[in-house]
Amino acid sequence: MNDSPRNDAPRDEVLLEVRNLTVEYVQPAPEPGVVACRDLTFDLHRGEILGVAGESGCGKSSLITALTRLQRMPAVTTDGEIWLHRDGGPPVDLVRLSERALRRLRWSEIAIVMQSAMDALNPVMRLGAQFADALREHHRGMNKKAAWARAAELVAMVGISPDRLRAYPHELSGGMRQRASIALALACEPALVVMDEPTTAVDVVMQRQILSQVLHMRARLGFAVVFVTHDLSLLLELADRIAIMYAGRVVEMGAARDLYSDPQHPYTRGLRDSFPPLFAPRQELHGIPGSPPSLTNPPPGCAFHPRCARRFEPCDDRTPLLMPRGGGHVACHLHSTAGNDAGPVPKEMSL
Amino acid sequence: MTARKTPVPTPVLEAVGVTRHFDVSGVLGRTQVVRAVENADLTLHRGEIVALVGESGSGKTTLARLLALFHPVTDGEIRLEGTVVRPGTKAAKAYHSSVQMIFQDPFGSLNSMRRVRHNIERALRLHGHAAASKAERRQQVLELLERVNLTPAEHFIDKLPHELSGGQRQRVVIARALAVRPSVLLGDEPISMLDVSIRLDMLNLLARLRDEDGLSLLYITHDIAGARYLADRVCVMYAGQLVESGPTEEVIQHPKHPYTRLLLESSPDPERLMNPELGSAFDRTVSPGEPPSLVSPPPGCRFHPRCPSARDECRRAFPGRTEFPSGQWTHCWLHGSGGNRLTAPSNTGDHQADQRR
Question: Are residues B68 and B171 in the same domain?
Fold first, then answer.
């Protein structure tokens, strides 16, 4: 996928190269491991927002913990590489990096925003002290006063008054806590911020406000975002590019606008049509029949075939590969000429 | 199109001026009062779906629980077919045969130790609808499972809840509610815990129960797009007060209350990608603030601290109801002093609706 065309990347410089990433949940022998992410390959550019959408159990959270090396047993990255390109340094493979070397990259290069800010903030430390803690860990020699001053700047960016720095997390509202944890993630100006459903715990008005601030800060600081959610309608508005995951694989990836106007994979289409429109004319819609598969016993061939209206002969036993199509990529036999080992498809439908 | 033509105007279930305050112990043992619902009026007609939309903590679940008689009201009345009902009375038992609740979490609302058959039969038995013979009861359960599209029903009747997916479990919950033969369902976020791809079919099922069986549904949700898809009418709740109501399309296309407008502007809509006229909703520079505490809510209209059009009177008193020819009503000083005027200055609202687009 390295040489594939990308007409929509906001910056050209690659920040993260994920190659054949496979994450398994190991089980006691002789049971085989449960594969949560299989053979994921994609690039992330500097300053880009990549959305990852999928339903529960599609592997999107496993992807996040693998990217940030926050996974715990029984989750294990069993294959693949994650190359992080740093300013003024050779790229490093996050999968094989030592804990010690990784620790230096955390917060200064890679930061994470969790779904629940209450779990991400220390309940017995004042907000400002948590900022100072992170800042002084990564900027040796920064004194306490300077760290608190920087913390005040950071929270001001997300619309929190600096006098709230003396508050404990429980004294803040849910929305304020979530904004504070975003500001905290940005404390050391990372190049990559991974966000795991950062707004599912807040309501739509606050969600809109938080995401406006994220976009505003991205314009200022230039970080890239991997944004994971099940809410495709939100992602379509927010992300530059979107990867759709199903049963541990990326089934389609492309520019948000293309995915919305002309989805190539039947699952993407079904998922898009699962969100009723807000203003467009009302019409009867149908979700996708059946339920998402269990990862312990995924269907053979294309994992989506039992739910797919356009299933045909090769879908049952051959797994389609992610192939370039138009400006994006899709893994579907409908778009490959000879099933599994098809070459690139002619671009008669390019977007 | 799931929304139906105008329903017959006989209210099945009504909340009239319903208020609910909760006492909670605050700091230093002092009792504080949470004003969860204030003076709410809600009407459900036969064969009608009404969506109750609002942010978390707006009191929408409390209102549903008041309608389900889980809590007594602090003030006001709940009426079924015009008769006032209070919890704990004899009439309340009959009431539960008519009004059934569907909860958000299908994992917690079924007896996990018992098979689907037992879960549904129990509702039949408790409400006196169970047939005498075992074979007939089995047939009753099978019919209920078919009504909620769990087919082939034989395949599901002897399953334990953990053997079912979330969507299938929620269908069993609905089948159990239907076993009681209710005229009203109260659905508290019934689809928000289900996978995205199966939510729509659950909404289509609820719409079918309305169309084919004349069931009434109060659909509680924070998702205004889903409310629009399903509901005939929408009620918008903010900080314990109902601020706007009306036919769904009128409320969505011509919102009268500034809070409804804020909610619509904030909701995701990928159409904005394709239609630049709608503008990006991510360029908001002013912070719209947060909902107030219900222990010490702001005086007057509770939305005024966040309202871009707030004026002096908004801080002084909660506005009366202004009704519009479109069938909408709102509580907002922008639309006059209220007081049930039918000759409403509707141009104000439309003007602002135009600005929104």
Answer: yes
